[in-house]
C-alpha cells in the first residue's frame, strides 16, 4: 500500500510539473523556405475570374523613387519601434498566413456550430441572417454551412494569390529588405517580388469572406486583419504600397466570391415545413419509407433539405453523382445490417468507441470539413508549401468537400432513408443522431472527397488519407447513427464527386 | 457532463465523511481509527437529475430526460497510528437516461476513480465543556478504468488525477452536539478526450483538456444520540471552480467547464451496540444551486464493519 502511495505521489509530482504546459491552440510552425516559388503562378487558371489580370492594381513606384524611399523609411522606423506584443504576433502569423486564416475560420465554425434548442413552448426558432444577434445567433455553422464557408474562403484566397503572383513577377519590385539590406527580415529569405503583398491579399479577402459568413464577428475579424497587415509591414518584406495593393486584390476577389455566394441557392436551403413535408411525402410515395426526426420536442424541419440544390463548383449536375437506391427495409441486406448494428451496440469495444469519437466532429466542434482542413494545414506545413500552393490545396479540397456535401444532401432528401434509431426498437447510440436522413453518410462523403484531393496533392500520403476517410465513414456505424451502406456508398460517392474537382486541378497549370 | 463527475467528487466528500464506529473514517471528518484497526464501508447510492445549470441558467433538456446515476462504493480505513489514518476506496458507477428521451444515447458503467488518502490529527484539546480537534488530510484519486470523461452527461468521472488537501476543525460538546468545518483545495489535472480538437473559448488542437481545480467547503452540525450509538448530521457543502468555461447553449457539457455547486444534506449512522464493529448508515443530499452543474438529488445506504487487523 505504501508503494502504491509512493507511486501515486510521484505521479502527482510529474503531473504538477507538467501542469503549466500550454495546450496547443494552433498548428505549431515557424517560417520556412517554400518548396517551390512557382514563378509562373500568375498564369494558373483561377476559379472565379477568367485570368489573374481581371483584378486590377496600379503600377508601383520604382524603388529609387522618393515615394518608395519614404515608405521604406516608414517600414524601418516601424520595425525599430516594434513592441513585444507585435513581435509575438509576427511569429504567430509566419510566412504562411493561409494556415492562420484557415484556423480562424475553424474557430468560428466551432464557436457557431450550436444547434438551436427548443423554446419553452416546444417550438424551434431558426437563426436568421437578417437579425444575426438572435437568439439563436446566426449562423448555425453545421457541416454544410462550414463546407461552404471554407470553400468560399479558400477559393477567394486562391484566385487572389494567382493575381498577386501575376503582378509580383510582372512588376518585379523587390522586397524591402532586399532594397535596403539594413532592414531586418523576420522570416526565411526567398526570391519573391513584394508588390503586391500576398499576405495582404489573404488578410483582406479572408476578413471579408468570413465577415459575410459570421456577421457577428465583424469587429473580431477587423482586429485580426489589422494585426496581420501590421505584421506584414513589421516583417521587413513589405512597404505600405505593397500591402495596400494586396489588400485591394483581396477586396476585389472577395466581392466576386460573395456575389457567387449570394446567388448559389444556400439562402433557400432551409425550407418551410410545408416544403419539407412534401419532400418527405414524395420519398414515401416513391419508396415506401421516410425519415422522421425523433428529438423531443420533435424538430419540424430537417437540416437544410435543399442544400442538394446549391450550385456546385465542379460537378455539372448533382444527379450525375447520386448513388443507387439503398436496401429496402426487410430485405436480406438490410436485416444483416440490423444484426451488425445490434452486435456493435452489444459489444462496444474500446477500439470502436475511440474511432467513433475521434471522427465524431459533432456539435460545438469544427465539423468534418473542419477536421480535413486541420489535416490539410498539417500537410501544407510538412511539405513547405508557399501561400499560393497552400491556397490551391485548400481551394480544391474545399470545393470537393462542398460539392460532396451537396451531392450527399441530394441523396439524403431524395431517398429520405430512416436512421437506425427509427427502425430498430430500443436502439441506443454513443454518437448524437443528426437532424437529417441517413443515406448517405455526410462524414463518409465529406471525408472521401477531401481525402481524394489530398491524395492527389500529396501522393506520398495517399494511402494514409484514404484509410482515414474509410475509418471516418465506419466511425458513424460504430457510433450507431448510420447503416453500413450509408458509409460504404457514401465513401464511393465522395470519391466520384472529388474526381470532377481533381480533373479541373490537373489542368490549371500548376502540375 | 463534467458535472456528473464533479458531483461524484462531491458525493465522495460526503461518503468519505462517513464514520465506522465511535472512531474512524474519512479525510473530511474528525474520526480517527485506533492504531491497527481497520474499517470497511460498503454503500449504494442512487442519484438523479432532470434539470441542470447551463452557465447560471437552470434548464431541463428532453434530449437527456432524467439522468440516473447509481454508485456502489467499497472503502477501507486503517489506523497506521492513533494519529494517522490511511484510506482507500473505489466506486463502481452506472449511468443512463430514463425513457422516453430525445437523444437515444446509451448509458455507461464501470469502475470510476480509485482513491488513496491519509488523515492526520494535528491538534486535540479537551476542556470542561467538550473537546476541540483539528486535522489535515491529503487524498489522491485517479481513473481506475478506461471510461471516457468526455462522454457527457453519462461520463463516470473526470478521468484526471486529483489531489485534495483539506483542513478540518471540530468542536464537540459534552451533551453530544458537535460542529465541523472543512475547507479544501482540490487540484485537478488533465483528462484525455478521444478527439483531437475541442472548443474552450477558442480552439484547442489536442485531446488533453484542462479540468478546473476547485475550492471545496463544508459545514456540519451533528449530534450523538442513544449513548453514542447513533450519529445524526445535517450539512452544507460547496464547490467553487477556479477556472473553466460555461456549457454552451443547448450543448453537451465538457470536462473543461467551470462547475460550481451548493448542496445540503443529511446523514445518520447507527452502530449496533450488541454486534461489535457493525454499523449501518443512510444519507440524503440535494444540490440547491450551481453553475454548469446538475441539480442532483441523491440518497444512499451502507454498512460499516470495524475490527482489529493486527494484534
UniProtKB/TrEMBL annotation, chain A:
PANTHER family referenced in this protein's UniProt entry, alphabetically: PEROXIDASE-RELATED (PTHR34599), PHOSPHATIDIC ACID PHOSPHATASE TYPE 2_HALOPEROXIDASE DOMAIN-CONTAINING PROTEIN (PTHR34599:SF1)
InterPro entries associated with the record: Br/Cl_peroxidase_C, PAP2/HPO, PAP2/HPO_sf, V-haloperoxidase
Record-annotated Phosphatidic acid phosphatase type 2/haloperoxidase domain positions: 394-502
Protein name: Phosphatase PAP2 family protein
Top-level division of the source organism's lineage: Bacteria
PROSITE patterns membership: PROKAR_LIPOPROTEIN (PS51257)
Pfam families in UniProt: PAP2 (PF01569)
UniProtKB/TrEMBL annotation, chain B:
Keywords: Signal
Superkingdom to which the source organism belongs: Bacteria
Protein name: Transporter
Signal sequence region: 1-24
